[in-house]
């Protein structure tokens, strides 16, 4: 769902730095050849992730939900020289597609892909993260938040995508709609957590931006 009228979205994109040729190609080929291309962050959100990465100059970034590797490339842009982005996805069919784009970028050497279930892999990571992007199965947002919290430095940032869930967060929820219930519960959990400060940004499908105190 677009929250802004299409012509305002177009205006905002026209006044946002363009995607690199590589990202544009990755965006276009995901739309042409991969299932569910709406999952890709895209131009505007990608530039937001890049801007935040440049502002923070993170040494360690964790992404939960790689898909075709678009947001990984954006988040890797501001990494320090010795920086590393670990990205997790359980869909092995997308790995070679994502890698074929990462290999065309100098940032590819800083991207460490881990294949598997996020809930299994996160506890095995012995890193302190500056920035985490939660963008996998929304039902597990709260679980991923709990699993990563102690691995984030004070002042570190967690982003969770799709927290407006196409607007369903303000509609009556059907008992059978577990995804919407999970997004609502996650948003409430963050809002009530005294260990963090947060702002729900209405960018694309909604990004919850969380700072660990
Ligand atoms: C919304 S897409 C990620 C989009 C990507 N971050 C981007 O912006 O271009 C979600 C991804 O999470 C992965 N995923 C879903 N559940 C998962 C799980 N339990 N463990 C690991 N990956 C999972 C899916 O395979 C899918 O590729």
Question: In the CATH hierarchy, what is the architecture at level 2?
Answer: 3-Layer(aba) Sandwich
> What is the count of β-strands?
7
Question: How would you state the average pLDDT, rounded?
Answer: 97
Per the CATH scheme, the topology name is: Rossmann fold
Low-confidence stretches: none
Tally of discrete structural domains: 1
> Can you tell me the CATH superfamily?
Vaccinia Virus protein VP39
Taking the alpha carbons of the first and last residues, their distance comes to 33 Å
Small molecules (ligands, ions, cofactors) in the structure: S-adenosylmethionine
- Which class in CATH terms? Alpha Beta
Q: What summary fits the major beta sheet?
A: 7 strands, mixed
Taken as a percent bin, the fraction of beta residues is: 15-25%
Give the strand order of the largest sheet, numbering strands 1, 2, ... along the chain: 3-2-1-4-5-7-6
Pfam family, one: Methyltransf_3
GO molecular function: O-methyltransferase activity; S-adenosylmethionine-dependent methyltransferase activity
Keywords: Methyltransferase, S-adenosyl-L-methionine, Transferase
GO biological process, one term: methylation
């Amino acid at each position: 769902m677009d929250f802004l009228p299409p012509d305002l979205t177009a205006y905002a994109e026209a006044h946002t730095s363009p995607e690199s040729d590589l990202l544009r190609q990755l965006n276009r080929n995901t739309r042409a050849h991969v299932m569910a291309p709406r999952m890709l962050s895209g131009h505007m959100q990608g530039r937001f992730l890049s801007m935040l990465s440049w502002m923070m100059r993170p040494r360690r970034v964790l992404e939960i939900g790689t898909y075709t590797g678009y947001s990984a490339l954006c988040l890797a842009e501001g990494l320090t020289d010795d920086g590393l982005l670990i990205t997790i996805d359980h869909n092995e069919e997308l790995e070679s597609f994502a890698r074929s784009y990462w290999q065309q970028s100098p940032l590819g050497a800083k991207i460490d892909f881990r294949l598997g279930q996020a809930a299994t892999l996160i506890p095995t990571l012995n890193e302190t993260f500056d920035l985490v992007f939660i963008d996998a199965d929304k039902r597990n947002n709260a679980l991923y938040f709990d699993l990563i919290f102690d691995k984030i430095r004070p002042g570190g940032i967690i982003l969770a995508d799709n927290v407006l869930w196409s607007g369903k967060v303000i509609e009556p929820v059907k008992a059978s709609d577990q995804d919407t219930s999970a997004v609502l519960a996650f948003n409430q959990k963050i809002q009530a957590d005294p260990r963090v400060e947060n702002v729900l940004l209405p960018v694309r499908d909604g990004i919850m931006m969380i700072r660990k105190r």
